[in-house]
Fold:
Amino acid sequence: MTYTTQSARLRGRPRISQAIAAMALVAALAGATACGSDSGTGPAKGPEGLYPLQQVDGSAPPVEIHHGPYFDAPTHHFYNQLVMQVTGGTIELDDNANFSMEFEMEYVGDGEPGTTSLQLEGSYTVNGSDILFMPNIGGTLSGTLQGKAITLSIDFLQEDNPLDYTFRR
Structure:
């Protein structure tokens, strides 16, 4: 997994850890469960293709996923106010059963803005309407593949509040 963070005004001050979202995604991999209905039979054609993020819990991005205090354990910094939103993302599936997943986010930590991009690669399998992602870094992330839509349930900040992320080609 790779991630990049950009921040305009955080010189010499603790800034939101790149690892906040990255670590949460890794943690989500260990505990993620499939969401959606089991009533579908999966796609009529192969799943290969590019799936842009269309919805987070039913709303089009950007979607706020956190607004409030937050402790950034990797930097040992407490934010009195952290506002984080998902602004976009993609999943790309190739015909060799490999995937590339990316999430784009913006945040404001105690008044200081920044952006981060999380990228994950690995392999995937499809069994009916179930899709299982196996990242190169370990863990698994399961979801549903219904027609041209992939839905994953992810709790980026480990707050026991997973949201449904729907990607559609």
Remarks:
- The two ends are 23 Å apart (CA to CA).
- Residues 1-14, 32-44 have pLDDT under 50 and may be disordered.
